[in-house]
Amino acid sequence: MDVSGAGDFDYELHGGGYAAHRRADPRIEAQVHAALGGARTVLNVGAGAGSYEPADRYVVAVEPSAAMRAQRPRDLAPAVNATAQDLPFDDDAFDAAMATVTVHQWSDVQRGLRELRRVTRGPVVVLTFDGDAFDLLWLAEYTPALVEADRRRFPDIDLICALIGTRVSVEPVPIPMDCVDGFTKAYYARPERFLDPAVRRAQSVWGFISDADETRAVDHLRRDLGSGSWDRRHGHLRTQPEFVGALRLVVGHP
Fold first, then answer.
1. What gap in Å lies between CA 17 and CA 19, rounded to an integer?
2. 190 CB contacts (<8 Å, ≥6 apart)?
3. Contact 152, 205 (CB under 8 A)
4. pLDDT 10s per residue in the chain (254 long)?
5. 203 DSSP 8-state letter
6. Which of 25, 159, 165, 206 is the most exposed place for a label (fewest CB within 10 A)?
7. Cβ atoms within 10 A of the Cβ of 231, count?
8. Shortest CA distance to 247 belongs to which of 100, 108, 96?
């Protein structure tokens, strides 16, 4: 199957570091798995390298990027080469479905979410970010272009709710201070991490701003860390156990 153009980011070229920097955080994972309820069969769409897949249930993973499929651990089953908007499964084939930090990268979000609902007889669980809350993170001070790029990419929470069920809940997901899933908000208390190019390469949004904007943001942050300016404004975050920002868990039931 040809799945070129499956999303808005080229993981064949830029997805090499995801397995190292985008690991499942156990506390976030527990909230995702609880939302799956008693499901024994689970579809994981946009599965990437396998983060957040439950090990105690039968999981079918769907991932269009060969580079991402190649990073799946050996103890996980190989992923199906397909896209969210064209799932090769029968109606109501799975007890539950999950999509973790992926819907913003789908080429047709509405069709993909409808497909999730079509093939699932139980809960559809979507871990995503609320674009309206992106400016809660201090990173917006250093690179407003990054925040605006991310906000444009993420579908509205109300749209997700309308397409994945008739009974839908939206839960804020606290981000722990030592979060091991390296999305941008995970480093609210560890600003130095953004100085590492490998960390930024594992956050797709940096690919949506210019090299000049990225350089300016990183240089500005480096100067403020060196002078102590960042700590004077945001140093309290270094000891804040968790950050409730834009991360959301949306759960839809039929």
1. 6
2. 177, 238
3. no
4. 333 344 555 454 444 455 567 789 999 999 999 999 999 999 999 999 899 999 999 999 999 999 889 889 889 989 999 999 999 999 999 999 999 999 999 999 999 999 999 999 999 999 999 999 999 999 999 999 999 999 999 999 999 999 999 999 999 999 999 999 999 999 999 999 999 999 999 998 999 999 999 999 999 999 999 999 999 999 999 999 999 999 999 999 99
5. S
6. 159
7. 14
8. 100
Give the integer Cα–Cα distance in Å for 39 and 201.
Answer: 34
Distance, CA of 165 to CA of 141 (rounded, Å): 37
Joined together, the tokens standing for residue 36 give 């799956």
Residue type, 243: F
What letter would DSSP give residue 61?
Answer: E
Of residues 216, 222, 198, 203, the one with CA closest to residue 145: 216
pTM of the full predicted structure? Answer: 0.90
> Is residue 195 within 8 Å of 181, Cβ to Cβ?
no
DSSP 157-206: HHHHHHHH-SEEEEEE-PEETT-SB-SGGGGTT-GGGGG-HHHHHTSGGG
Cα–Cα distances (Å) from 65 to 1, 34, 85, 114, 234, in that order, read 11, 28, 15, 21, 38
Q: Which domains does the chain have, with CATH numbers?
A: 11-253 (3.40.50.150)
